Amino acid sequence: MMSKEHSVKVLSGWIMAPVTLALYAGAGVLFWQSAVNGTTSASGSTQPNVGLLIGGIFALFFAILSTPGYFTLQPNEARLLILFGSYRGTTRQGGFCWGSPFYANGPASQGRSRGRGAGDGGADTGGTQVARRLPRYKISLRARTLNGDRLKVNDKAGNPIEIAAVVVWHVEDTAQAIFDVDDFQAYVSMQSETALRHLASAYAYDHGEDQDTEITLRGNVDDVSRALREELQERLAKAGVVVDEARLTHLAYAPEIAQTMLRRQQAEAVIAARRKIVRGAVSMVEQALTEFNEKNLVEFDPERRATMVSNLMVVLCGESQVTPVINTGTLYQ
What we know:
Blueprint: E1 11-12, H1 13-36, E2 39-40, E3 46-47, H2 50-66, E4 70-73, E5 77-83, E6 86-91, E7 95-98, E8 118-119, E9 122-123, H3 130-133, E10 138-140, E11 144-147, E12 151-154, E13 160-171, H4 174-179, H5 184-202, H6 221-236, E14 241-253, H7 255-295, H8 302-317
Antiparallel strand pairs: 1-7, 2-3, 4-7, 5-6, 5-10, 8-9, 11-13, 12-13, 13-14
Helix pairs in contact: 1-2, 5-6, 7-8
């Protein structure tokens, strides 16, 4: 059954502080009065006043009992109130507060947590139990940053690549974060890695020869980041976590194929450039022949027409500068 957070109010600590101080002061006064107003026995020893002594003991007991109920909450911080194993609610009111002293303060640390989470604005190296990181079941509601490690995975085409992402998230439902998963920070870290691996295998690193319209990791960073955020939100909803942002921070081919893929990209770039040059040259030759015909400047037979087209293509498509040979005779000599 999925847990659900509900808010509760606790008393202000500034209201209860005078009560606790009065109990401590009253206990001292009652102890002193019990000694002053004691009775003297037949043997000459003084016996304290039993009624005042009992009253002082009760006042001291309630003063000591109320003391552990004080706690403080910073802005964007919440505390879960657990009474004898039963969830009573979550308070988010900041400042100096007082609640039942029987509210759980968290079990003792046992072993180490799995994985690595992220703290407020930085990485959390892990290694401690959730209850130890969350004294009195306090949870920070601030935005947290998970800077993931570089992962080596295969893309959609089967090419090994290195990929990493940064995830900005915050706790939205404190009850789900504590009760529905064992360690919500380790859960975020593990699910982020799983989602990133799945995303990398769903898209190709770059466009193939005949796949210029498909979404790729390198060419559609915004679309890929949006898909990563949506998948993460679906995975982390169970832990009461909201993903604010998720973006790729590193993307590259694995070292063993990096040089090969670089040569491939260079070859594709050269082919694309040549194709564009040829397309432009053909357009210019066609325009030149059309203007010759429209203005009746020169009449070409098929052989001379082919020669002119060949010469123009050499001039326009050649990488080095062409040195022309000037014909001083007629066109047909």
